[in-house]
Amino acid sequence: MTAFPLALSPLDKLVMTLDNIVSICACPERGLAMLKGCLQELEPIMEEPIAYSLVGDEFHEPLNSLLGKTLELRYTGLKTCIHCGRKVHKLYQNGYCFPCVRSLAMCDLCIIKPELCHFDQGTCRDESYAISQCFVPHYVYLAFSSHVKVGITRKGRQLRRWADQGACAAILLAEVPNRKMAGEMEAHLRTFMSDRTDWRKMLQNEDPVSVDLVEVKQQVADQVPGPFQRYLLWEEQEIFTLKYPRLPNWKVNLSVFNLDKTPLVSGTLQGIKGQYLLLDTGVLNVKKFAGYHIELSESASP
Q1: Model-wide pTM > 0.85
Q2: Where are the alpha helices (DSSP H) in 152-251?
Q3: By the 8 A CB rule, do 5 and 80 touch?
Q4: What pairing do the DSSP bridges indicate for beta strands 240-241 and 169-176?
Q5: Counting Cβ atoms within 10 Å, is residue 219 exposed (0-12), middle (13-18) or buried (19+)?
Q6: Per-residue model confidence as pLDDT tens digits over 2-61
Q7: Which of 95, 103, 125, 154 is deepest in the core (most CB within 10 A)?
């Protein structure tokens, strides 16, 4: 069943459905039929290299086969919240409307800064969300993206997290019982090391990684406060490596596309990394524009 944003009228829904049918039928000779819908994110599948798909409410399109192809992406001018479907002029936190940002647990400040968890104060926005997402084991890890950084992620989700950040390599540092403890440990570690990624350096970095993450882990572990020492994964020495799809022998064009200022983006797809499409004409952070309604097609050969 086709899922429509909740705030669209019946006429809007009918027009979207007919437009999609016409677009697919009109472009059978192309490698990519025109896609239309509400943009969400790049979804990675852990292969070598990582297999990416462009995901929206109306499409789930594999992208690796489009390397070397010229694509056109057009922002239609419509924005809708990726949670409730409300039509809006402005979106927040990668695709949410202001009311959802104010009410959803997944948009609370403690998601960004877990050490500020306020569950024990009885003010959690959604206790069921906290139980399923926060009160479960979390990893504290070290990853190399633009440099070595510390981060946290829910256990079982680490590979997806590293791929979203564009990390080339990572190693597990500790496993703690819940998200708040992971945030507290990260907060201490970021007093002497970064927890941020420089996206420009991340996009330019290529394998191999020159940093010895096992050695860095030992150095960082020595700085972990006493109460967290019991959670360190001393015997975990595996370095996870991630490879990203890209064409050989080209340099990243770091010009940044902003769909609000440049609604039509066109260029040859040279690579994909993190949440970025790397075109010969510039780069597009897909997740930044979640909730934007777009049309994507492959340009006809000249």
Answers
A1: yes
A2: 158-165, 179-189, 199-204, 213-221
A3: yes
A4: antiparallel
A5: exposed
A6: 333 334 454 554 444 445 444 444 444 446 778 999 999 999 999 999 999 999 999 999
A7: 95
